Every structure is written in structure tokens, then in C-alpha cells.
Fold these 2 entries.
Entry 1:
Amino acid sequence: MSAQSLLPARWPVPGVFVALVLTVAIGGLVVAVDGGQLFHQATVVSLLHVAAGLGLVAVGQTLVIVGGSLDLSVAYLISLSTLVAAETMNGSDGAVLPAVGLALTVSAGVGLLNGLLVTRFRINAFIATLGVGLLLKGYLDNGYDGPAGVTAPTLVRTLGYQRIGPVPLSFLLLVAVTAAAWFTLARTRFGHHLVAVGGDPEVARLSGVRNDRVLVTAHVLCSLCAGLAGIYLASRLGAGAPRVGTEGLYDLESIAAVVLGGTALAGGRGGVAGTVGGVLLLASIDAIFNQLEVDAFFKQVIRGAVIIAAVAVYARRALRRGRS
Amino acid sequence: MMTVQSRPLPMRPRVRPGGLLPILAILGVLLVLVAVRQPDFFAPPSLMSFLGRSAPIILLAAGQYFVIVSGEFDLSIGSLVTAQAVIAARLIDGEPARTWPVVLLLLGCGALVGLVNGLITTRLRVPSFITTLGMFLILVGAVYYWSDGAPKGALSEEFRRFGRRAVEDVPLLGRIPYALLVLLALGALAVLVARSDFGRTLVAVGDNPRTAELSGVRVWRHRTIAFVLSGVAAAVAAILLGGYSGVSFQAGAGLEFAAITAVVLGGVALGGGRGSVAGAMLGALTLELLLALMNFYGVSGALRSTVQGAIILLAVALSASRSPSR
């Protein structure tokens, strides 16, 4: 699929991919000078695994942000989803389908709650999803001290670790979800309505879009993506982990990836292809610094600086194009 | 960020739409609940120490108010508080003589971080959500890196005084914590700043930056100063918190969200242009009172966030439904 067609033409999609190519090229060079190998199979595989987890969340996050909302509850929802999945399976292969179904149902419920709070109760999305996050956090803190449940071995073997060449199955899942999300945004009526609502809710409403319904749907889809990420993490870790979402900073990192991908935080502009680029960029930086054996904390400093710098470059470019 | 900018601004004579009434009502209800369960709470000693304990978050909310009312976010304050506490402990290292220089250094540091946040947001046009999120990652990473994963050194008793000591033997009140005195002084200052020309212009900037710009306001300068105020507030909060509860990497964890929640509870609109600093500080007080209340009613530590989340959602939903302008 050509990146250009994914978006309304105003926003420079390839920006993040240019940054990605540059990062990988320079990073590869530096790693090579250092005596390592960035394109080693193991490195690429682990990079794609990291990207798959964050990517699933970020694609969902893109949908709500394009609609002018955002979701800060995803980190807790991911943890919850790993627990629901792993506890339902409890190590038996027969229970995979019900477990996945239940985890996704719970996720959809959380998304519905988020959506209703934002639309019906008119709570600012920042506060609404933060509040829902707190609700989930209380449940997790109250019920769990450590890992619980056991993921079914088949799922661990397939979704968790199986790969085709250097490409993990989970990354293919991300590609499939991204393609579906792209189709939804670019080719369906719901997608166009969502962009319209994010661009200007009042104009959208006056043009006959049912804003509330559109936003609730976006929130449900976002939560489903987070739930899926949870199922993936459960199959990766072999158990449900009550802190995996927050420790991975999935809430803030997913938003950062979306913005890196060129989606406007205010809504109405952007797309999932850029988001995947943003995710890959973050994952490559991670891989490069792992190869260089940079201190984990120092890595975080660099990561913060890169996020700011990258977005500053976009903003400059948008400015030159004559933004208000 | 997500406001509808369609409503034309009628000429309202200084009546603030984001009034104090809802937050006062919520505060009143919580006070009644506390009174029913724990009448002792209103005895001067416990009330004073409660107010002293709440000082840091109230100051953070006041700082955050300036940023939010100008239409931006500051997500870096929690990590700033942590970083400041860890830096203070390492630099002081138990030496009383280093107390004042370090206090000044912390205030300067807070202002500097605010300045950087502000300049990146306004001059480089990076959304403040991303700027301050990046700053959050940078500060947390840097402070862990600098101290190899565990806080080192110790605060001097002189430093800790601000957070834990009190003026003793005051008639009627018993003891007044230094933290409360700091809060009263800086709280009054915050109200004065909010009512000054600067404060009013800041609200105009948040309501409609374009209009403000066209009326000759230097939007970037106002917003940058707002970030500096928030950074300084975080420095003061770090000094009080470090003194009260000591140094750890968790010192400031989650405070940014608590401050933003408090500000919204106080009737300030996210996205800017509406609300008062008094409301923001009352919102923080309400949040602290809520935590105390949960203590009195024996809500278990782990379930707390659930109750807190539910009440915040309820309170914000109620105040949102009251104001017809949204």
C-alpha cells in the first residue's frame, strides 16, 4: 500500500519513515563501528516483538486521537487483559477461544465505558480515561500481587514465539490489525465520520454525523486493540501480569508513537500507517541502544529527547506550510 | 485541546463561568462526611497537620493552573518533584551548611525546567503534551542514571524542617506547620498573580490564542512564564515533600495526574480559557480530603484508586452537566 494514499494529503506521512530509515542507517553504522550487528536475526526479531506489543496499542490509540479524544486507560487495560486471558485459560489449550473472547469482551466493555463517559457525560477525555484507569488500577492492586494464571501452551508457542523467517507471528497480527484500521479510516463511512468529528465536532454534528456514536465506537475499537495487546503479552510472558501495562508505559508511549507518526493530537488529521512508523522508530532506537549496551536509564533520557526533537521537526515543517 | 471553539464570547462583566460553586459544594459534602465519621478531624492539631500535608499538592495544582488555563499541559511536574528530591539529598549529603544553597539551586532548577518546557512548546511548536511527556522521560531517566538506581546521600535536618516542623505553642491552634505558612504565602501570591494583568491575559491566551495574538499579546512569552511558574511550584513542592516523607524515586510519582485532576475538579477547563486559581487549589484540597476520608472509612489501600477514580468521574460529570456552556 502506498503511504501517500493513506491520509488526507496535507500531512507529510513519509516524514516518520524518513526518520526511521535515517535512524536505522546511522544506528546500524554506529553499532557496526562498535563491533556489533544491528541486522542480526535475534536483534530484528526482538525489535519486531517490541513493535508488535506497542504497535497494537498505538493503532487503537490512533483511532481515538484522530477523533479528537485520547485514551489514558490503555496501560491498565492491557494488564487486566493479560490476567483475564491467562486466568481463563489456566494452562489448558481447550480454553483458548473462550479466554480470548472473554478478554476482548472485557476490553470492549471498558472502551464502551470510556466512550460513554466522554460523550454522554461530557467529561474531558483526559480526565475520563484517567479515572477509568484508576478504577482498573484499584481492581488490579486489590486482587493481584504478582503474576497469575497460566497461558495455554499452544498460544505461547504460536502468538508468543512462532515466527516466519525473522518476522514473528505477532508482528503479522499487527500488520493485519493496521491494515484493518487503515481500511476503516480511509475507506468506510465510519472512518470519514471519525476524521470529521476530530476535525470539528460542531461542523460534523451539523452535517448529520452522530458524533457520540462515532466516538464511542472509536473508544471500543481502541480498547479492543489494547485487549489484543494484552493477549499477546500474556502469550509472551506465559502468565497474566498485573503491572505489565504500566511498567511498559504503554499509555504515554502509545500516544508518543501516534504523534511521531504525524497524527495531530487535537484530532482530525493523521493515520495508522504513520503510527506504525512511529512505533518502529521507537523500537529501533531501543534496539540500537541495546546493541550499544547503553545504560537503561540513559536510554530513557535519549528517548525523551528524540520524541521532542522529532515532533519539533514536524511542527517546523507544518509551520512552513503556513499553518495558522 | 478538545474544546469546541464555536461559542461566541458574549460580553460578560467579569463573571467567571467556571465558578467556584461546584467545587465548594463537593468540598462541603466531603467535610460533612468527615464530620460524621471523625469529628476529631476538626480539632486544631489534626486539621493543621492535614493542611500542612496537603500543601505540596495544592501548590502543584496552583502551578498547573497557570499552564492549563493558558491552554497547555504540564506532565513533567511529578518527575520534576522526584528529581529535585533526589538531587537535594545527594547534594546536601547531610551537611547542614549546604541547605540554603541547595534550596536556591532547586528553585532555579525548577524555573529552568519550566523555561525549557515553555520554550520548546511555544518556539518550536511542539504540543505541550509531548514536550512535557518527553521531559518526564528525560528527568526520570537522568535521575536514575545519575544515582545508579538508588537514591544516595541524605537531607539535612534544616532542609527537612520545611516539610515536617511547625511553629509550636501558638494560642488556639497549637502548632502551625511551616508547610502551611509556605502554602498561605505562595497561595496568596498565586491569587495575586492570577488577578494581575498577566493572569488575566493568560486566560485570554488560553481562550483564544489567535485573538490574543492579534490584540498584541505576546502569546509565547505568557505561556512560557506559565510553565516557569509550574516548574517553580514543583520545586517548592519537592522541598516540602522531601522534608515530610523523605527521599525516594516514588516521591513524585503520579503527582502530575493528581494535579491535573485537582485543577479540573476546581472548575478549570482543560484546553484553557476558563477557571480560577482558587478553584484549582480548592480542587487539590478536595482531593486530599477525599484520601483522608477513605482512611477514616477504612477503604483498603489497594481499592483506594478505584474509589478515587469513581468519585473523580462523578464529580467532574456533575460539574460538567451544570455548566451549559460546554
Note: Residues 1-11 of chain A have pLDDT under 50 and may be disordered.
Entry 2:
Amino acid sequence: MRIRFPHFLRFSSLAFRYSLFFLFAILLIFFIAFAYSYGYSSILLLEGAKKDANILTQQTISRFENVLQPAELVPQTLVDAIENPKISFDDILRISREFVIQDSVVFGSCLAFEPYSYDKDAYWYAPYIYEKGNKVTTRILGSTNYDYYKMDWYRLPKLLNKPVWTEPYYDKGGGDTLMCTYSTPFYQIVDGKKKFAGVLTMDISLAAFERIVKEIKVFKSGYGFLVSRNGMIITSPKMVMENKNILDVARAGRGMEAIKAIKSMLDGKTGFASMDGLDSKKHPSFIAYAPVAKTGWSFGILFPADELLDDLFQFFRKILWIFIYSLLALLLTTILITRRLTRPIIRLVEATKKIGHGDFHAKLPLRKSKDEIAQLTNAFSVMQDELSNYIVSLQETTMAKEKIESELNVAHTIQMGMLPRGFNTPANWELYATLDPAKAVGGDLYDFFYLDADHLCIAIGDVAGKGVPASLFMMVTRTLLRAKAIAGIPIHEVMQSINHELCQDNPNQMFVTFFAGIVYLKTGEMEFCNAGHNYPYIVGPGGDIRQVKAKGGLPLGVFETVNYSSEKLCFKPREILVLTTDGITDALNASNDFFGEAKLASSLAAMANKNTKGLTDSLIIELKRFSLGTEQADDITILALQYKNPSETNEKPMQTVQITHKNQLSELENIVINLEMLSEKWNIPLKIVMELNLVLEELFTNVVFYAFEDKNEHLIHMSFMLIDAHQLQIRIEDDGKPFNLLEKKVTDIFDKPLEERQIGGLGIHFVREMMNSVDYQRADHKNIVTLTKNF
Amino acid sequence: MEINEKKTGQCVIIGITGRLDTTNYSILEKKLMELIESHHDKILVECSNMDYVSSSGLRILLMALKKITMVKGKFVLCGLQENIREIFEISGFTNIFEIYSTQDEALKVF
């Protein structure tokens, strides 16, 4: 499940983002300050700790020296006394005894003589005065078990000729305790020469140092320790005592710093260093050390680093918590404030969303104040009203436009439907025409139709202007032509008559340039009249081309009183007459050049070998290529008529005629014309023609009304074949839904009273009655009806 | 197709000239329905100039006959050309319609 946060906590919200931004900024500043002060504080702290440690070291060393001082001073005095012959050894021993009793540190003193030097019979002589319990006892040392001549405390001062502090040792057979001894050599004058006579020792208990060292406490677990010159650990409360040498301790698993520091310490230097701890925990620690000058010992203190910084750390942890709490409070406050500031904007956004979804009456939040948000709200309110008005007017405009467009589409369909197509010409003529309108409804027109079996009327025209008015004017012209053009009437009279009609009621002063001709199919002669239209071209078979510069009068509809004149020309075999409108010559290319007459002429010359359809299509393609990337400005209309060699027709008498009709009732007219032509050609009796007419009309209207469920244009093909002089076969094809007229039951036609007679259903009855055979096939998604008729 | 109309007493004579087919039958239909709705119940259709009739045309004539028969009126044809008469025979209409060869002969029955 997805958790849905309130808006102000979502990342997208302004409040949240601003708060977060501030938060990060404050965090950054804080952490820089924090890190700096922490770092600086710890440096200061370390400096302080170093100084304190050094002071502590020096103080402790002073205390050691205070303790050691009597043990060094008193023997010196006594030794000097020994050299004086007036003072006896007993006096010396007595003073020593007093000293041992009085001094808290010195617990024993020995006066050890060279062999036989005190008593000529005694190899060893060393009276030893020492404290044991609270008693002071005197023993004479020296035996085979305790040969003091081999011991350090005797050997070293003798060797070095100066007083020596021994390493700590357990004096077995002597003091029987852990101790250190200060041995001072004494001399006797024999034969005027100073001669080594023995050693005076002061034994000191290490307990005194232990006490001093134990008193030292640095932080929680820091401690002091005292080592001898060789690194022997004299006293330490914590050090691992298994390794009695401190260097061995350092070497046992501590880092290089530790070894280095300890070596420096044993060399009698003073220092401060960071190193691993010497106790078993090995925590990172600091060490401060200095030599105890008299003895050659060294004293050090060691404390864990984290304890030094512990207070600091605690302090900063408190600061951090205080900071986090304040930061949370700040964040909350920022969010609340920003939310308060942005709430009206959010309300405005919600209202705007509603408007966006089409609710133009959504209420905008009211603002009492006059701040920026209130101004924005007002601006929105104005926009809302404007938008609402705009939408209303847009809807009205769009509806009106749609209406006009749908009407224009209807007009276009009517106009294009009026243009004849699939025209049947005698075999020695070929005709093809096309019209490519610039807008939905154009002002161009072409037409061709038979006046009688031998006379073909062709026409092309261009109404000034475009759109619906031009189209209507064009339809009127075309209708007038069809009505006025009658076999036997010269074409200029037809034009005169059309002009008269057009001028009768022409408030918009529209006019049409018009070329019309009547072709006598048998001879190839053409009588024509040019009412201000583009000159036609005649393309010869070898590519020779000429323009028919005919001037028959002004365009139709200009002046009622204009006289029109006609001219004649005669087709030579294989010549093509090409009629065009100025949509071709006036076509522009992307660089605003006209297609022009010259290019038209040269293009046509190059197409001389093509048939009429090929020529027309090629010209259209060339034109489209020329004007690529521009919008077609004017209608483009071409009509091409070719007269083939007359002998061709004689060789092959026409036995088959194919005609294609559109699924429109207006085509019935063409069916009639075609049948009339066939009757003349093939000598079909009028009665038979009428029967054929009736049957074809029935079948054709059936197809038009019932075969197609869509409203698209479909083609219906009819082919007529003369099987012999008295038998005709007709084949009708359509791509409509299947319908087998042979399956249709024709009953109830006869012998029923009037009331029971059905209206309709007669057509199929006629077909069966009047034809000699009727056949139906369904193939290739087409209905094919084949009829034969004998005559 | 052209239609002309003329009155002789109570009788209306409708003359049809040319072709009566699918493209124009509605003109005749409209004319006849107008007459019937304005209570003309005696109608004679003069067919001597009618060159052609398709089943659509026949349908209109049959419809008119039915309507007028219902109001006890009279609907009569006359002057059928030979071709047209054959079509009437094929369709069996000669049994239903009263058909006279001339207009004068037809007028007598009213």
C-alpha cells in the first residue's frame, strides 16, 4: 500500500522543499563550526594535557629525588670520614645505624671491606645494619653462599671508582627484599697512597617509590611508572609484570611509536608521545617521560587518549542533541509558516485544475488581503471569464464551420459526380479527362457527350473564382451546354445562347472562359468556339506540337451582346487535342516560378507517343513534381482527345462495348444514350432496345438501391457483345452484397385481385420475361449477371 | 418526361410525354397524389406520347389505382403504344387497369 502524505509533507510541495533547503543549509553551517571547534578544542586540550603531564612528571621526579637525596648525601660524608684515621669504623657503623633508624626510605646500610683488609684472617667482612619489623639488627655478610665481591652493588663502584645506583634486585641472603642500593666506594691511605678499601651501601626500599607512583592518577585510568636505566620496571601499578623489562613490553604487540618512545625514554630523554597503551588493553594512549637524573632511572606517565578527549566528547554530544532538537523545532516552524503562506496558492491550483477540466464556473478562493496571491487570483478570475466566453464563441464558430464544410463536401460530391467518366468512344477515337480541384469545390469543368451517333461534343471551362459560387456557376454553364448543344446547330450559336442565358441573371458578374467543340467522328473534323479560354494544343505523333490560336469571343457571362464565331480544324491520324485550364500554366514551384506555356508545350511534345490517359497522367505527375512543397492554388483540368487511324476501325468491326457506370441514378441517362448508340451500330430493333432499356434500368436501379451498405462510390460494369447478327449478350458486374435474382420468387403477379397485388417486385419479373436467358454467378466478391437476347 | 394536365368536366386528364422511369417517376407520383388529396377521383391518363415505362412508373400507376378504387373513384388509361401495352401484359396489369385505345372512348365511361 502506498502511504499518502498530506500535501505539505510531499517533496513536490513548496513548503517541504524550502524547509528542507533551510535545514540543509543550517546543517552544513553547523557541521563546519562543529568540526572546527571540536578539532581546535582537542588540539588545545592535547596541548594542555602535554603541559600538565610534563609538570606532573617533573614534580614526581622531584619527589623521588627528595627521597633519594639523604641516601646519597649521608654516605658521601661517611666515606670522607672513613679516610680520616681519627674516626674508627665503629663510629661509622654507629652513624649509619642512626641514619637507618631515622630515614624512612633507607632501611639498611652495609660497610663491605676488601678481602682481608679489615681482618687479616677474614676473606669477607661486611657488617650490615638493617631494619626488620621495628627492630634494627646487625649481621655480618659474606660467605661462600653470599659472595658479595661478585655482586653489582660492590663490583660496579669498585670498577667505576664512583658511587653507583644499582638496578633493582632481590637481595637474597642480604636484605631479603626488593631493593635498590646506592654504593659509594671508600678508600684508605696506605703508604701515602689512596687505595680502594671497600664499599658503603645504603639500601632503599622500593615501597617508597611505589607509594609515590600509586598516588599518581591521570584521568580515569592513567598511571605512572618508574623504570631503571636498563628498562627494568621498578614500580608500576598496572604494567604487565611478566615482562620485567619495559622494552620487551613495548615490543610485545605495540606499534613502532611505542618502541621509539620507550627507547628515547631509556636513553634518559624527556618527551611526550602518542602510542599504544602498555597494559593488556593496548588502547591508543599518550606518554610523558623524563629521567630521574641521580639514578639514571626514568619516570613516565601513560594515559589513554580517549579519556583525554572524553570530556570534550561528552560536551559536544550535549551540544549536538541541543542542536538536533532546535533543528526539528525550526523545521516544524518553517513548514507551518510556509504552509500558511502557500495554502491560498494550493487552493488556487485546485480551482485552476477544475477550470482545466472544463468547469469554467469553478469558484476561485476569495482573498481579503491585497497581496500578490490576491492579485494572481484576480488575474485568474479575469482569465476564467475570458476563457469561458472564448469557448462559447469557439463552439459556435466551429459548429458553423462544420456545417459549411459538410455542405461543401456535398457540393464537391455533386460536382465531381456530374463530370462524365468511363466514356465509350468509337474504336478509332480515344478520350480521357481529369479534374483535380484545388479546394473542396472548384470552378473548373469539362464535359463530353454525344449529340447523336456521329457527333461528339467536348468542352472545357474555367469560372473566375473558386469555392461554392464558382462551382454553382460552373454547374449552370454545364447544364446550359447540355441543353443547348443539339446536332445541327453551329457551336458558336450554342455559345451565344449560353452567354445570353448566363447574362440574364448574373448579379455577381461571374463569368467563365469556355472552349467547346463538336467533333464529327466519321471524318475527324471539329467545329469549335473559344470564349476566352486558354489555347488548346494539338500534339502530333512525331512530337510536333501546335497551339490552336482561336479567338471566338469574350468569356461567357461578360456581355450579353457579344457575337461568337466558330472555326474548324481537321484531325490528322494519331493527333491528340489537349485542352487544359490555366491551373497548369499558372502552377507555381517553391521558388515562385510559373510552369508556363513553354514548359507545357515541351512536356506535351515529349509525351506524343502516349495514349490519352498516359499523357494526362504523365502531365499531372510532372506538374506535381514541379510544384512539390507548394499548395495547389487552382483547379487542374485536362481533356485529351485522339483521332486514331481511320483504317483501324474498318479492320476490326466493334463487337464488344464496355461501359462503366457509377452507382448513381443519374447514370440512367448514359445507359439510354449508350443503348441508342448500340442500336444504330448493330441494327437492333427499337422494340428490343426498349426491352433492353427496361431490363437494364431494373437491374441497375436494384444495384444502386440495395447492393451497397456504405455510401461510397462504386462502379458497375456493363459489357455488350454481339454474338451474331441477331443475338446480343450483356454482362453486368457489381461489387455489392450477394444477390441472386434467380432465387427470388415471383408469385402473386397474376390472377390476384387488385387489393392483394403487391407494389414492387415487378422488375425481376420483367427481366425473366423479356430476356432469352438469365444467368447469375458470384465470383471474386462480385455479382455477375449474364443476359442474352435474340432479335 | 413531361406531364400536362387538363380538365373536362369532373374528369382530370393527365398526359405523359416521353420516358417514365426511375429518374422521374416521383414527378408523376407527386402530381397524382396532389389530385387525389384534393378529392379528384376521376382521372384519365393519356399514354399515347409515352415512349417508355419502367417498373417504377408502373408502381405509381398501380398505387394511384389502389387509392382511387378505395374512394370509389375511377382511374383509367388510354392510348398505350404497342411496346408499352406489351409491358402491361407481361406484368399482368391489363387485367387490373381499365385500358382504352382512344381518349374519346375512355371519356365515355365517366
Note: Residues 82 and 89 of chain A are 7 Å apart (CA to CA).
